[in-house]
Fold these 2 entries.
Entry 1:
Amino acid sequence: MARRRYRFRREPNRSGYGIGLLITVVVLSLATAWTIGLVRYASRIPTQPTLVEPAAAVVVLTGGSKRMDAGVALLAKGTAPVLFVSGVDHRVDPARIRDLIPDAGDSLDQATIDCCVVLGYGASDTLGNARETALWARATERTSLILVTSNYHMPRARLEFTHALPEVRLVPYPVIPPDVRMDAWWRWPGTLGLVAGEWTKYVFARVRIGLADLVSSAAAPSPGTDQEQKN
């Protein structure tokens, strides 16, 4: 009598397929959200100079073209009595600051530098700019600041400065770099990379600030707890 041979069909492992599909959906969702945010971020970048209100000081963030020129021009117009430059390289000699602004002309003489220009050497990024400026502004009792930086950098700079100086009135003054093409920005690889990088940094800054606020609020004692301790 011949023996019967039975063949059992092995069920496919669907767990690995499900995990892969879930990862794909998550990645596509994050990429879509990031792209939508990038488009909205780019649409809010100013493309024209704005009118500026007088303030207690002008703050220039180093790192972009024409920022110093804009800050010196505001100082020369009397928009603010003092110019604070944050993020200056430690190799820059205060006596040779005019070398950084060759087009300043007579608007930045030595007397103006001595009385009205303050250099900050303690920052290497936007977060450092905000912290350095906060220390100086509180030490000198400045209640309003004109914030000068490049237009593509302004949203992140305002985010950091608002968090570091919530009690100070900020007046944004975006500088329009000639080499940043915001008209059809997605067609220019240099501008696209610049704006995309700034948007990514902005997202990480928002997350970091949100987590810091959450930790601070959780660590702060409630009024009821203080009352119980007193009793």
Entry 2:
Amino acid sequence: MFLKIKNIKDIFFLCRNFKLCVELYKYYKMYPGCGMHNIGVAVYSSRRLTARGEKMKSALESFNVSSIKPIRDLIFESIRKAIFDGELKPGDRLVEKELAEKMQVSRTPIREALRKLETEGLIKHVPRKGVVVKGFTPDDIIEIYSIRQALEALAITYTVKNITEAEIKKLKALLERMSELTEEDDTTNLFNTSQEFNEILIRSCRMPRLIKLINTYQEYLERFRVVTMGKKERKLSALKDHREILQAVIDRDAARAKQMVENHLQGALEAYLKTFNVNGNK
């Protein structure tokens, strides 16, 4: 299956699509870390699957090896997403050979991705079992929320100074939409709208390095929020918090905005820990 792809002619032979061929080659020249061979494998695989009428549905199976990012980063992001989405559950084994076959890459980038996931604390080595997905403990959850609380509290103080009137107008519109969705008990759209509200607030701080740090923990918080946002009382509480945060921003009151953000995230932590304990997670 791992064909020898050396140049653009080999890619054209596989995909039989000149426009696609040119685009893939341009990506390869810009990002040689992707590897000409891996681009060819992606084209070959997509043609084989299309011919068989198959659809890749899971986070691991929908892995796109022809992306312009380095392969090891794509693998890391795909496995990480599979863990957050629950496709890979705590205790599941991660075998290099099996992952390489499923994602249609060599074992070397798989090994590099697993090393990075272990550094992040999402997987661990277990004697006589190998690499397994690591679950979250209450201490893990408290640590993640504490980090996010500190970072977002800092960000909001700069948001108060740097936010534009256009951004405030957008936040007001999103808040009204969140109110409607709360009344309708539309959890999915409420979650997405709330995420957009939070992203604008954070982006408005105009601190790129701080934003990058906050985004590092974004997927953790998304997983936790999905659980808590399903409860009506939490929806109402979060809506109230967002109103108070936005009003403090509009009033240009940095101290109050910081306090509101800290209170909001503390409430989110407590709500998740209640759910965590009720479900008997270890």
